[in-house]
């Protein structure tokens, strides 16, 4: 007895046979579908691997961090450590100094990636760092690490990624205290620790949610488009089945079987492509992120979802596409009397999406059971689906109104008027991507403003800052001289500072903040206070009116008063007793200014002849550096090399006018990685779709050339056929993306500051037009040969 299931199975199997054994046309269609679906599946599998990639990187990072102990006695299984990081041309180099307490007899377990602790004077480096050291042109980096000899490499388990620059160096110079005398607490007995996770701000969670939707929606749209490749020829083949008795439903099921075969083959292609890309992962680094091939393990639930959803969507999309096609025994009735597309239902997804998003305006907060994230994600998806559904109607209505023009324009317009569906489907992916990217760009700009803090530093006046605690005054002065003598340095503003308190104010100091004490030359002091005159030997009292009136600051001294310079920032006297200094009688009160140094001092400003900086206990050494405009990057590297080996470990960083939170910077890098992948997919998908459309019109193109049509005319016609739908798609995407962006910003209480955020993405769409057209030219020229008139 025939059952519905058996009928479906029979017809689907017949469709599969047509796909794999249907001659050259069937194979061509199946191959194009498999390539298209395979590209999408590969990207989906990469996306499904992202959680494991991130967790694997984090696990390796935690596993190599020493366990911290406040107090740990030395033993045969203990070791000292010190993190020694540097930067080289914008790339972070992570270094760790290791010193086993028992020397060569240690029983301590070495860090992951190492078989044993390095001996003093030796280091083990990551493969990426070894390549950089071996490469020519990296002399500053080699000089920086010249203290140690590279004797081996770090294994994969000791690196967060294959492109990480890292080293472990052996030493025998680590002690119980830092240079300023404070305990180092740098002894441990094991590696491997965990850190509590910090919840992300709701703005960042929404931003991540939008990124995921925007990056994955074009993939889903492209897969749905790929299963419809070659639809016109397929329908003509199905018409022949009607002659041998197949009914309308059977032909639809057979067509679904063909699509199913292409989708399943696409899964195979996608998995194979994923494995190839996975094997090449160690050679790629994007925005400083890299991963080992073994990190790319797709999430099992997501993998099952992909393997089930792709073939199922192929069947459903095919059945949906055939609902308006009458396949009769005498041919396909598709375009004889075109029925205009209806607008009503195409607006429903976008309206539903806005109805889901608008209630969240001004009240979006993440957390709980995730219901708000699901609501927001569903709303974003529906708005983007609405833009895709609206595009075919938009293209049809616009091209119907086109009249006249050059021959190439008329050929393109007539082709679009006869059937705009394939062209609309070809650009649906870029429409979704651009609409989502515009919304993302608007939200990204708003969130960046919230996650960015103005530093107040004038990067035109100074570009580099060097600072350290615990360096004595003599070495600090020597450091200022060496910095000033570095080629490419125009000026150095050096300060040596500490804290002070009047002896009579020591009672109750725990509740108040000591005054600042700064020793510097006159050029530097003029950057910190409004001085009428200054000479070596002068001293000043810098008075901040707000801080002077505050009860939590100690009173400032006057001329002739005595202050204790041997205290820390909490007013506690350093070992060795007080260091008393008398304020000169000619000391002038001045107002602080925020100059190049960025310091806003409230306290004593003194020149070296007025105050011996060595009296300041464990001072803070700081140099703000103005660079010459020539070759600043190399000058910065020379400065890094100069300060790297100093025992006080000065920290050098380049000044910025604004700083961005670490979480936002991480999201920004993730967006860049995903955007590159999706843009590559969009370009590939449009090229495949364009080639499929050209293949469908092979005989027509050859016939036009045979009748005398210029090849250049047909080439320009292909350009117009690509450009018109893309331009209309960009218009729809700009509108949908702007509306979605405004709604998303209102959800987190942000105001729209850039109404022209769609322009960069629109420009990207124009670039896609040029790339797709150029890529299709070789096939177009080949199809216009006389051999294209042959038929089988």
UniProtKB/TrEMBL annotation:
Keywords, in A-Z order: Cell membrane, Membrane, Transmembrane, Transmembrane helix
UniProt-listed GO biological process terms: lipoprotein localization to outer membrane
Domain named ABC3 transporter permease C-terminal: residues: 210-325, 675-785
InterPro entries assigned: ABC3_permease_C, Lipoprotein-release_system
Bilayer-spanning residue ranges: 32-54, 203-227, 259-281, 301-322, 343-362, 374-395, 670-688, 726-745, 757-781
Cell location: Cell membrane
Entry annotated with the keyword Membrane: yes
One GO cellular component term noted in the UniProt record for this chain: plasma membrane protein complex
A Pfam family the protein falls into: FtsX
Membrane topology: Multi-pass membrane protein
Primary residence: membrane
Family, as annotated: Belongs to the ABC-4 integral membrane protein family. LolC/E subfamily.
Protein's recorded name: FtsX-like permease family protein
Organism from which the protein derives: Streptomyces harbinensis
């Amino acid at each position: 007895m025939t059952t519905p299931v058996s009928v479906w199975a029979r017809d689907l199997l017949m469709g599969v046979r047509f796909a794999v054994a249907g001659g050259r046309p069937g194979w061509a269609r199946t191959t194009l579908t498999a390539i298209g679906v395979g590209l999408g599946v590969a990207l989906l599998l990469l996306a499904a691997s992202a959680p494991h990639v991130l967790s694997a990187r984090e696990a390796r990072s935690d596993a190599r961090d020493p366990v911290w102990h406040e107090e740990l006695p030395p033993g045969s299984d203990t070791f000292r450590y010190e993190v020694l990081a540097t930067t080289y041309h914008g790339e972070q180099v992570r270094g760790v100094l290791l010193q086993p307490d028992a020397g060569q007899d240690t029983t301590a377990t070495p860090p992951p990636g190492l078989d044993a602790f390095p001996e003093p004077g030796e280091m083990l480096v990551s493969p990426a760092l070894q390549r950089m050291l071996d490469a020519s042109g990296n002399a500053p980096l080699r000089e920086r690490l010249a203290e140690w000899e590279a004797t081996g490499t770090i294994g994969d388990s000791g690196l967060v990624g294959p492109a990480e620059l890292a080293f472990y160096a052996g030493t025998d110079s680590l002690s119980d205290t830092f240079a300023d005398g404070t305990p180092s607490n740098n002894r441990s007995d094991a590696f491997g620790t965990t850190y509590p996770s910090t919840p992300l701000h709701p703005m960042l969670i929404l931003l991540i949610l939008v990124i995921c939707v925007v990056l994955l929606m074009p993939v889903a749209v492209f897969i749905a488009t790929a299963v419809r490749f070659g639809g016109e020829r397929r329908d003509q083949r199905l018409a022949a089945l009607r002659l041998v008795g197949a009914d309308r439903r059977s032909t639809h099921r057979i067509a679904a079987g063909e699509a199913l075969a292409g989708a399943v083959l696409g899964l195979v292609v996608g998995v194979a492509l994923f494995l190839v890309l996975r094997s090449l992962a160690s050679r790629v680094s994007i925005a400083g992120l890299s991963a080992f091939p073994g990190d790319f393990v797709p999430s099992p639930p997501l993998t099952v979802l992909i393997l089930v959803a792709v073939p199922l969507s192929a069947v459903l999309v095919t059945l949906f596409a055939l609902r308006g096609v009458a396949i009769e025994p005498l041919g396909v009735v598709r375009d004889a009397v075109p029925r205009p597309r209806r607008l009503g239902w195409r607006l429903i997804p976008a309206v539903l999406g806005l109805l889901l998003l608008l209630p969240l305006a001004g009240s979006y907060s993440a957390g709980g059971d995730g219901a708000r994230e699901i609501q927001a994600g569903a709303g974003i998806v529906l708005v983007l689906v609405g833009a895709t559904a609206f595009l075919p109607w938009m293209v049809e209505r616009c091209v119907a109104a086109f009249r006249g023009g050059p021959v190439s324009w008329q050929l393109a317009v007539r082709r679009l008027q006869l059937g705009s569906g394939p062209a609309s489907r070809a650009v649906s992916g870029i429409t979704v991507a651009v609409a989502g990217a515009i919304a993302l760009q608007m939200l990204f700009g708003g969130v960046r403003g919230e996650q960015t803090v103005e530093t107040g530093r004038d990067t035109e006046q100074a570009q580099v800052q060097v600072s350290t605690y615990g360096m004595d005054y003599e070495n600090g002065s020597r450091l200022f001289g060496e910095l000033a003598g570095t080629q490419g340095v125009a000026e150095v503003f050096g300060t040596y500072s500490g804290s002070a308190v009047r002896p009579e104010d020591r009672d109750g100091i725990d509740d108040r903040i000591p005054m600042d004490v700064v020793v510097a030359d006159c050029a530097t002091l003029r950057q910190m206070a409004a001085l009428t005159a200054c000479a070596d030997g002068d001293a000043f009292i810098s008075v901040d009116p707000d801080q002077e009136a505050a009860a939590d600051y100690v009173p400032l001294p006057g001329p002739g008063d005595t202050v204790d310079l041997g205290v820390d920032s909490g007013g506690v006297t350093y070992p060795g007793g007080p260091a008393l200094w008398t304020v000169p009688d000619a000391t002038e009160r001045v107002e602080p200014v925020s100059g190049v140094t960025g310091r806003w001092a409230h306290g004593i400003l003194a020149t070296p002849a007025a105050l011996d900086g060595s009296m300041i206990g464990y001072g803070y050494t700081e140099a703000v550096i103005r660079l010459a405009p020539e070759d600043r990057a190399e000058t910065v590297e020379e400065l890094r090399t100069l300060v790297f080996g100093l025992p006080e470990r000065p920290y050098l960083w380049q000044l910025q006018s604004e700083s961005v939170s670490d979480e936002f910077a991480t999201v920004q890098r993730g967006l860049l990685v995903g955007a590159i992948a999706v843009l590559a997919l969009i370009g590939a998908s449009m090229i495949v779709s364009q080639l499929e459309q050209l293949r469908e019109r092979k005989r027509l193109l050859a016939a036009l050339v045979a009748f005398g049509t210029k090849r250049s005319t047909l080439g320009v016609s292909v350009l117009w056929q690509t450009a018109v739908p893309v331009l209309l798609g960009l218009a729809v995407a700009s509108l949908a993306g702007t509306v979605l962006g405004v709604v998303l910003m209102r959800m987190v209480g942000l105001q729209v500051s850039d109404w022209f955020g769609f322009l960069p993405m629109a420009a990207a769409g124009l670039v896609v037009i040029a790339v797709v057209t150029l890529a299709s030219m070789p096939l177009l020229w080949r199809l216009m040969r006389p051999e294209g008139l042959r038929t089988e």
